[in-house]
Amino acid sequence: MAPLTVFDLLTLHDFAGDLPAGWLHRLAVAGRPVFYRAGTRLFREDAAAERLWLVHSGLVAIDFHVPGRGDIVIETIGPGEVLGWSWLRPPHRWHFGAVVADDLRAVELDAHVVRELMAEAPDFGLEISGRLLDVVAGRLQSARHRLVELYAYPGDPTRQEAEG
């Protein structure tokens, strides 16, 4: 059995699978299949954001550095999800860090090439931007839920009101 091409892998991913074939072929030029072992640091906060990943298997921990406490994990990204959106807008620097938590298989896309494709084809650019906005909105919603869980406790009258 022949290995899957980048085009094949894109068609199997939630983020890109329903894009028109022509767009997938163009996007495939920017990508390559990758495998990273657990413990591999993909990027650090404030480094140049030059890649994005469409995760097929494994887990990636998104973190940020807290002086005196080290790297604090704030979210975990898994299969079917996208890692990286900081490459989309200047200054193209990571807002957080990321380390592979469980062996990772993904399509790694060159952000510079994707930005060029988006500029060349405005319809494609609008669609990719919208999908990435959905990713960002989902992350914000997840952060909101985590904050509610963190600060909610049995004596909290707002929690009792919501449950009762």
Automatic annotation (TrEMBL):
What the entry lists under InterPro entries is as follows:
cNMP-bd_dom (IPR000595), cNMP-bd_dom_sf (IPR018490), RmlC-like_jellyroll (IPR014710)
Task: Return the Pfam families for the record.
Answer: cNMP_binding (PF00027)
Q: Which SMART domains match?
A: cNMP (SM00100)
Q: Where is the Cyclic nucleotide-binding domain?
A: 15-118
Stated name of the protein: Cyclic nucleotide-binding domain-containing protein
Species name for this entry? Answer: Paractinoplanes hotanensis
